[in-house]
Amino acid sequence: MKLFPLALAFVIAASGSVCASAATYPDSCAVGPTHCKLIKEDAKFRVYDYTAKAGDKIAMHSHPAHVVYVLQGGKTKFTMEDGSVREVDLKAGDAVINPKTVHAVEHLSDVHVIIVEDKQ
Fold first, then answer.
1. Mean pLDDT value of segment 79-99
2. What Rg do the C-alpha atoms of the chain give, in angstroms?
3. Which of 3, 15, 46, 120 gets the highest tally of CB atoms within 10 A of its CB?
4. Reported pTM
């Protein structure tokens, strides 16, 4: 039980560093405006249609907590702020719930997704 407060403090500290870091990067539509088409936005949410072709690269940017719904799947390579890299292969119909994040993107195939960002 004594580890719980320490673990909780670590999570809170880590979350704070992500928030501070994310604030220093522009959002995805600012760095990739030709890929984004705004569908709807209010004080709580932003919904946009995102398309990219194989070979497209998007510079380092931030997202608040967000959901990605895949219309056309494909492979994407994400480079995280710390330099780590991961490839993701999503299929049409997949939905992914993501926390706040900072990353750069390289599309290895064509993709088409709907992204819903939590603005709170």
1. 97
2. 15
3. 46
4. 0.80
**Helix/strand/coil (H/E/C) assignment for every residue in 58-109:** EEEEEECCEEEEEEECEEEEEEECCCCEEEEEECCCCEEEECCEEEEEEECC
Burial class (CB in 10 A: 0-12, 13-18, 19+), 116: middle
Distance CA(101)–CA(22), nearest Å, equals 7
16 versus 68: which is more confidently predicted? 68
Q: Identify which of 32, 107, 97, 106 has the alpha carbon closest to the alpha carbon of residue 62.
A: 32
Confidence of residue 24 (pLDDT cuts 50, 70, 90): confident
**Which contiguous run of DSSP H or E holds residue 41?**
strand 36-41
For residue 10, name the pLDDT band (cuts at 50, 70, 90): very low
Domains of the chain (ranges plus CATH)? 3-118 (2.60.120.10)
Q: Which amino acid is at 25?
A: Y
Question: What DSSP element (H or E) covers 51?
Answer: strand 45-52
Three-state DSSP at 3 gives helix
Residue 38: both structure tokens together: 């705004």
